[in-house]
Amino acid sequence: MTNDYCTPEGARRLKQRIEAYWSERGYNVSVDLVDAGFMPAMRSARTDVRSDMVNGMPRRTMAANDHGPSSANDSELERRSA
Predict the structure, then answer these.
(1) CA-to-CA distance for 39 and 37, rounded, in angstroms?
(2) pLDDT beyond 50 at 69
(3) How many CB atoms are closer than 10 A to CB 53?
(4) Global pTM?
(5) Distance CA 21, CA 74 (A)
(6) Residue 39, H or E segment
(7) How far, in Å, CA of 8 to CA of 45, rounded?
(8) For 14-32, how does the pLDDT look when each residue is reduced to its tens digit (9 = 90+)?
(9) CA-based Rg of the chain, rounded to a whole angstrom?
(10) Rounded to whole angstroms, how far apart are CA atoms 55 and 70?
(11) Is 19:12 a contact under the CB 8 Å cutoff?
């Protein structure tokens, strides 16, 4: 199944999609795959996708030298120091 994100292959594809999505928007998101083993309710093994996001949003932007978008605080500091 191509839409089964609980298999190791599907979880890996989902991890890549999440990281690429947020990277394109200037965020550094860490996504890990965790083997949860056999789940009796599912009658199969599963792979969990876990990230460092909070409520579905990234916690931090890329470093300034990564050429990600700057925050509002950075532009305010630049204006004051000019």
Answers:
(1) 6
(2) no
(3) 15
(4) 0.64
(5) 23
(6) strand 31-39
(7) 9
(8) 999 999 999 999 999 999 9
(9) 18
(10) 22
(11) no
Q: What does the alpha-carbon distance between residue 51 and residue 18 come to, in Å, rounded to a whole number?
A: 9
Q: Are 19 and 29 in contact (CB under 8 A)?
A: yes
DSSP calls for 45-70: EEEEEEES-BTTB-S-BPPGGGTPPP
43-49, long-range: CB < 8 A, 24+ apart = 44/6, 46/6, 46/7, 47/6, 47/7, 47/8, 47/10, 47/11, 48/11, 49/5, 49/11, 49/14, 49/15, 49/18
**Which residues pair with residue 37 across a beta bridge?**
46
Distance CA 33, CA 48 (A): 6
- Separation CA 22–CA 77 (nearest Å): 25
Neighbours of 23 (CB within 10 A): 15
Rounded Cα–Cα distance for residues 75 and 59 (Å) = 19
